[in-house]
Amino acid sequence: MERSRSAIERSRAAIRSSHTQIAAPTRATASATPTSAARTLLADLSADALDAIVDDFSAAYLEAEATGNDETAEIVRQALVVLGRHLAHELGPKAAGVQIN
Q1: DSSP symbols for the chain
Q2: Residue 100: predicted pLDDT
Q3: How far apart are CA 36 and CA 18, in angstroms?
Q4: How far apart are CA 92 and CA 44, in angstroms?
Q5: pTM of the complete model
């Protein structure tokens, strides 16, 4: 139970960090390396923790959509995109079942 709570708290921190980055425009330089707290956080999570986070975010997104809470739905959608990109990067196209020509 404690691992689940810890994973959820880390995911909330990543969402807050992502929301802050989205709300404040940034100026990236050509030499800047795109490292983020979200990538570090996701890399440290187990497969079970990632599955739980995806399930929780999916449920939160559906609930926000159903209740008309557009702001929350957008934030959760963006978090799901971050998770999806991380999982696609970690799995690779072959394991994810994506065909690349």
Answers
A1: -HHHHHHHHHHHHHHHHHHHHHHS-----TT-----HHHHHHHHS-HHHHHHHHHHHHHHHHHHHHHT-HHHHHHHHHHHHHHHHHHHHHHHHHHHT----
A2: 62
A3: 9
A4: 18
A5: 0.55
Check if the beta carbon of residue 3 is closer than 8 Å to that of residue 44: no
Give me 27's structure tokens: 């100026």
Residues 6+ apart with CB under 8 A from 75: 15, 18, 19
Phi, psi for residue 98 in degrees, rounded to 5: -100, 130
Instruction: Give the pLDDT score at 65.
Output: 92
> Which residues of the chain fall short of a pLDDT of 70?
18-36, 93-101
* Residue 74 buriedness (CB in 10 A; 0-12 / 13-18 / 19+): middle
Residue 83, Cβ neighbours under 10 Å: how many?
20
